[in-house]
Amino acid sequence: MSTLPSQTHPQLSKSRFLNGLQCLKRLYLQTHHSDLADPVYPSLQAIFDSGTLVGELARERFPGGELVEEEYFEQEQAERTTRSLISAPSVPALYEPAFSFEGIRSRVDVLARTDNGEFDLIEVKSTTSVKKDVHIPDIAIQVYMTEGAGIPIRRAHLMHINRAYVYPGGDYDLEGLFTLADITDEVRLYMENELPGHLERMRESLRTTDTLGIETGRHCTVPYACSFIGHCHRNDPEYPVRELPNLRQPTRERLRELGIADIASVPSDFSGLSHLQRRVRDSVITGQPFVGSGLASKLREIAFPASFLDFETINPAIPMYAGTRPYQQIPFQWSLHVRDSDGGLKHSEFLHEGDGDPRERFITSLLAALPSEGSIVTYSSYERRIMKELAEAFPQHRGGLLSLTERVFDLLQPIRTEYYHPGFHGSFSIKSVTPELVPDLAYDDLEIREGIAASASYARLITYDTATSDRDRIREALLAYCARDTEAMVRVFEALVAISDEQ
């Protein structure tokens, strides 16, 4: 065992504690080697930004409070501000108060003063329910620290989004938008039975390098994707077994027990692989694509003119438009490449701008642009689902939208059932499929390269204080990204037709 210099209490925080519950190796790396963490990609930053917005609005459920404004790295000053506000009875609530106890430090979302001199602790989450395995430890460590710092806690609550809330427009009904769940009893039970042992193990793990030997597995992504996935998988084989599609945990464990880390090493008589997983294994071993006998017949189901269609949507935690719910998918952009039977191609597109609900113009522009006949080719069932939801929300367009859904051809399905290339690495996303089937077409030259980043960019586009020059750049980036998706679909289709013709 390699031991680090002795510390009475190696520095912890609430976030590090939660990281340690997921994986002690993650805790060690976060504490001692944070520079090895993966970059914060736009999609992850969008999640962080959404959580910040939810937290700020949730404070209004406890009006009149004071914000501890110091940054997270200004812990000592933040604690002094916190003590000053707690000692002022006229302050009914504290937002982001700072505490430290036994080498642990954290900030609390809301601390609400009660009539008897105690406080209620409120943790705000952008989830739509209480996730006990995650949220109870989260709140328990906060109560432990806060009471350790001398602040009596009466009740512990989790405040989360109420997905059934329908925004009527105007001011938000915060009691309707947020659900306040009292989980005090569960938190106290966790503090008594589980918290001490976890803290002891974490502190011990931070004093040694023993945890660096922890192998990768399901804990790398559950309950959250670890920020050190890239580092921990850096020595993986080219085709690790985790790339087998829909790999269940029991099968993963059996392979681990056999010492099998490479798909190519999976024995031919290994039981438990699905038909698709076995196809992936065989393709990796031979180094050749799998081409199913039904590929040509499935592609012939596409009728011309073929409309290759892609949507971009935003699903804000806090609903933006009257009549919508939290996390409801709101389409704001479409791209359409129409290909005739001779290969002729025509492109059209729509991107809503402005602060109003984009759906009405989205619908009318789409209905006007799509040909009255031929297949509507999408990649997954996503666009069909969005059109059905729009038909329910806008009954005046119900007939037209539902007639479109009857013409949808999901290009993803024949690829999943009739084609596989080792370069897919277990993924059938358009971003994984395109480089292998259309090597000269990529997304690397684009500012926006995936859907979550597109949603986050659209949020900036419609924000009133975004500079005009930034709006222009974002607009062009959004149009380029969505157009690339439908161009990729056309090119993938053409590549598959050529492959099927060779069979």
**Continuous helix count:** 19
Structural class: alpha/beta
CATH topology of the largest domain: Nucleotidyltransferase, domain 5
The CATH homologous superfamily name of the largest domain equals Ribonuclease H-like superfamily/Ribonuclease H
The coarse silhouette is globular
Which residues form runs of ≥5 with pLDDT under 50? 5-9
Instruction: Determine the mean pLDDT.
Output: 94
What value does the Rg take, in angstroms? 27 Å
Number of strand elements: 16
User: What oligomeric assembly is this protein in?
Assistant: single chain
Report the top-level CATH class of the largest domain: Alpha Beta
What number of domains?
Answer: 2
Describe this protein's structure.
The protein has helices at residues 14-22, 24-32, 42-58, 75-86, 132-148, 174-177, 184-193, 195-206, 229-232, 249-257, 275-286, 295-299, 359-369, 382-393, 398-405, 412-418, 430-437, 451-461, 468-502; strands at residues 12-13, 66-67, 93-95, 98-101, 104-107, 110-113, 119-124, 153-161, 178-182, 290-291, 306-314, 330-339, 345-351, 376-378, 408-410, 419-420. With 503 residues, it is an alpha/beta fold. The protein folds into two domains: 12-205, Lambda Exonuclease, Chain A (Alpha-Beta Complex); 296-502, Nucleotidyltransferase, domain 5, CATH 3.30.420.10. A six-stranded mixed sheet has the order 2-3-6-7-8-9. A hairpin with a 2-residue loop joins strand 4 and strand 5. Helix 1 (14-22) runs antiparallel to helix 5. The termini are far apart. Residues 5-9 have low confidence and may be disordered.
